Description:
A seven-stranded mixed β-sheet has the order 3-2-1-4-5-7-6, sandwiched between helices. α8 packs antiparallel against α9. The chain is an alpha/beta fold. The protein has one domain (5-141, 159-187, 239-247): Vaccinia Virus protein VP39 (Rossmann fold), CATH 3.40.50.150. It has ten helices and seven strands. It is globular and about 50 Å long. The site of S-adenosylmethionine has 20 residues, from β2.
Amino acid sequence: MDIPRIFNISESAHRLHNPFTPEKLATLGAALRLKSGTRVLDLGSGSGEMLCTWARDYGITGVGIDMSQLFTEQAKLRAEELGVADRVKFIHGDAAGYVADEKVDVAACIGATWIGGGVAGAIELLAKSLRPKGIILIGEPYWPRMPPTEEVAKGCLAGSISDFLMLPELIGSFGSLGYDVVEMVLADQEGWDRYEAAKWLTMRRWLEENPGDDFAEEVRAKLTSEPKRYAMYTREDLGWGVFALMAR
Ligand SMILES: C[S@@+](CC[C@H](N)C(=O)[O-])C[C@H]1O[C@@H](n2cnc3c(N)ncnc32)[C@H](O)[C@@H]1O
């Protein structure tokens, strides 16, 4: 069981697999006023940076589940590196349907809401692991302005315009699901650049090290097209943020 290989290659050097910089992640942790001993569940935990740094900085404990074997291994190494391996646990697996044995204080799905079949499904899934008055974190793209055409949405790697909402509508949708939005931290273009542009050097290096690999043609095609696609569409036309929710 694993994710498509292109992600394990292009994001192999990433600590954060989203458009947050380390500073934005720290801002989110501070904004949530995390206390020592806070229990956090992270579905689609990537390379574990959120749980590991919050364990180091705020003394949280956590469990992360991710379908990438590579990212899960990297998360375990990061936990050791930061001296928090006794506080965070990383599981390689499919997080769809995952419910924690013990209720958590914070349940997160950051940039992987498809795990629950979309935002509403992800919230429903996370709520099953959450203690009363706990906080749900959702990391999700939004349209900063309505894309003028479907081509622009596809350029942002959305299936269609309807895949995402504009920010006020996204925030409103949480209310319609019965949740207060109690905090939010939004990514900026610097963060997008760190997430997207960092893939290009990783792909370039991978191609130099694996010229005969069956996958080299696909990676080459991505490296050729991605910088321009990103600059033309995602950088200007896609927003991303993490929203903290509490049930009304
Ligand atoms: C955009 S990345 C976000 C990772 C992490 N939350 C972060 O922000 O750094 C999406 C993550 O979801 C993971 N993923 C995709 N499908 C999954 C599934 N069904 N179960 C668990 N993890 C999954 C991928 O391996 C990847 O790490």
